[in-house]
Amino acid sequence: MTFAWYGHLKFFHGWSLPLTIFLSWGIALFEYILMVPANRIGYNEEGYSTFQLKILQEIITISVFILFASLVLKEKIKWNHAVSFLLILAAVGFAFYDKTHS
């Protein structure tokens, strides 16, 4: 999803906006094909709440984004970005607290 949303900023400069949107949707479709069954398994078979599934998805997305922005887009992580990421990690731990202590 990260590449679908941000890859065009580096790789598809000369493309029209409609073509870029179409390509991005095609890339995003692949992630949806993986995420929908993963959410169903997590919810129905593993007992995660929808809140837990969402926050887990966010931490995965942000982790991938940090790597993408750093390695592909060559952006530097500033201290406030690092602190924000740590707070999100804390939120994940807090969201799963009841699952580990039940």
Automatic annotation (TrEMBL):
The chain crosses the membrane at residues 12-34, 55-73, 79-97. It comes from the Bacteria. It holds the Pfam family DMT_6. Keywords: Membrane, Transmembrane, Transmembrane helix. This is PF04342 family protein.
